[in-house]
Amino acid sequence: MGHRKKHAPKHGSLAYSPRKRAKRLLARIRYWPEIETDTPRLLGFIGYKAGMTHVFTIEDRKRSPNYGKEIIRPATVLETPPMLICAIRAYTKTPYGFRTFTEAWMKDPPEELERVFTVPENFNTEENLKKIEENLEKIAKIRVIAITQPKQASVPKKKPEVAEIEVGGGTIQQQYEYTKNLLGRTVTPAEIFKEGQYIDVIAVSTGKGFQGPVKRWGITILQHKGRKTKRGVATLGPWKPTRVMYSVPRAGQMGFHQRTEYNKRILKIGADGKEITPKGGFIRYGIIRGAYMLIEGSIPGTEKRPIRLRYPARPPKHVAEEPPQMTYVSLESPQGK
Question: Is the overall model pTM greater than 0.90, yes or no?
Answer without folding.
Answer: yes
